[in-house]
Specification:
Number of strands: 26
Number of domains: 4
Helix content: 40-55%
CATH superfamily of the largest domain: Bira Bifunctional Protein, Domain 2
Number of helices: 27
Strand order of the largest sheet: 3-12-13-19-16-15-14
CATH class of the largest domain: Alpha Beta
Structural class: alpha+beta
Amino acid sequence: MPANSLEQVRNLCMRRGFVFPGSAVYGGVASFWDYGPLGVELLNNIKKAWWQDTIYTRNDMEGLDAAVLMSRKVWQHSGHEATFGDVLIENRKNNRRHRLDHLLLDQDPKLLGELLERSAPTWDPSDPQIDNLAQFCGSWLRHHDGQDSKVGFSYGLESIQRIAQLIKKGNSPVTAANFVFLLTNLAVRKQLAVGVLNEVGIIDPTTGEVGDWLQPRRFMGMFVTHAGPVQADPGTEEELASRVYLRPETAQGIFMNFAHVQRAMARKVPFGVAQIGKAFRNEITPGNFIFRTREFEQMEIEFFIKPPQFVKEGEKNDQQWHEEWVEQRFKWWLRYATSPSATLEERDATASRFRARAQTPDELAHYAKATTDIEYLFPGSLGWGEIEGVANRTDFDLSAHSKDVPEEDLKRLKLEPNHDSTEKLDYFDPDAKARYIPWVIEPSAGATRAMLTFLCEAYHDEVVTEPTKQQIDQIKSDAAMIRKNAEKKIKEAQKEIAAGREAKHDPATVEAFLNLLDETVSRLPESLTEVLTALDHEGAQNLEPVKKFRPPTEKLVEDCTRTVLRLHPALAPVKLAVFPLKKNKPELVELAQAIKERFQRHFRVVYDDSAGIGRLYRRQDEIGTPFCITVDFESLEDGTVTVRERDSMEQERVKIDDLPAYLLPRLQGE
RNA sequence: GCGGGCGUAGCUCAAUGGCUAGAGCAUCUGCCUUCCAAGCAGACGGUUGUGGGUUCGAGUCCCAUCGCCCGCUCCA
């Protein structure tokens, strides 16, 4: 059985050097994780497997590694700047979030004037944004009234009040959009009090009623930085001129290079470009270990295909390409989630934890016609989580970045003409004898999520030494004692509740715990580890006998079980471990080290002699090392060693000279 | 960001507001012909997440802050 909680995997990762909390020396920083010695091996192996499977073993793919930082225009035209940088406001009545600017534009303009008028007295004059607003108001007034610039530019509530009055009269000197922009900015700087916002009665368009609004906040999905060492004030022209974003997806780097790759490699559509790289998103709610982080790694393919109108009979259209990619990618996940030693039942069980799910129309991103998510059933409360999205992005992106796109296409894609672009990202199809902007299918996987997926699926706590009858009886009698005590507590709690007082225990959860405990205890010995997890049930909290019962059970579980990562050998961070049976015999040590050195150029192999042989095996099991080699006294005589396989724990005597032929196919998962 | 829980050695956990904060495991150093945890001896390891406060005295009580976990949001 794979991991039954993320906590187990998290623990193993931190203990054995897969993942460490970022900036730990300074107390850590949320959502950033460092990949340790084994983590980087695992992650590299995942990326290598993906790269080989998507590029080397196909005839229609090329690789790319584009810069993380790109022109800000990329993100303006891709639509990310608009959709990733919203000021949102939440309605407490129905917990719905709205973009503040959209919400304000929906309101009666008179209400905006009132909002301005009422909130003005609460402003902090030292905030530069207020000064900014005053200046804008001044210049607008000057425009409107033809007043002398001197008056208008000076800071003062008068000009703002006057603007507010004009707006209320329906005689606004500014466009609603300009005004909303300023209000939005004020709101972000907490200069638009929630009280005032609620006083004027902002209407929630979803209900048509006045909402109960929380303080608006900016949710900037993209990380902002600046190309150039000069720092400028946020929002100023100078700042905007040097502003660049850390990419929220690697895909745009591929779109930027579509024509380069096509020309340089003389490719004909259909062909694809693959890229692995870091991406950054200022997630509203990061969490669940490395599942949702603000810095993560993507493995993305943009597969360029003919637009539907050029598809000939017998050729795949966009839907068919989409389906094929979903199928290809789904197979890939199953392949690496399964250990070659898995039984048919185990393979079925693994397959049942993966699914492909078509997104509903309201889930779709702004660029997608259709998206199928590949999801994995993560342990515990995380549940089904997306590990890859296969999207049909049509010609949205290439058109968005192209100049001179025909009007009807812009209309279809809901795009504005691009006057910044210097190129049209189209392609002359010699076969169709036509020039077109290709469509694209995008299988986009999370590399760091893949790591978590494979770890969860590979994690196994196995009972390897059966506990004695005496030990099992002990557990049974302890469990009976727990039940006796807990039932007493339940009765007490029921009395308290009947008397209208607060009870220490919730009878229903305690009862649930007892049932779980009984059920697991009844299936001993194979349910040994489950008995231990049952003790973590919330109904087990504050029960004295549980506290007593826990340590000996923990000890027993530790003694009788091994933790093994049944990783696909291609992914295993360490492929081979070599031990001398006795570390105080120099001949054994020397031979073992020589074997280690023989393989170390080809894959990651470790030498270890710092514990007894049993412990050395368990250490390697825990990190998923597929094979261990032990050098013993016999080895010195006949040149054979013991090869021990991880999953079956079976041992085979192999000649040292035959090791490469023995190991290589097995390490490839054959 | 809001609500709930947690934070003591590398890990798992002890310590009625009261002596120099303990134990097991792990790690390291010796000794040992032990192939699936556990042989023996010794050593290392802590400003109790951080910063304030209450107190004669704080790991323990209060406040703030940071981090993690669980819910609400999402999408690789």
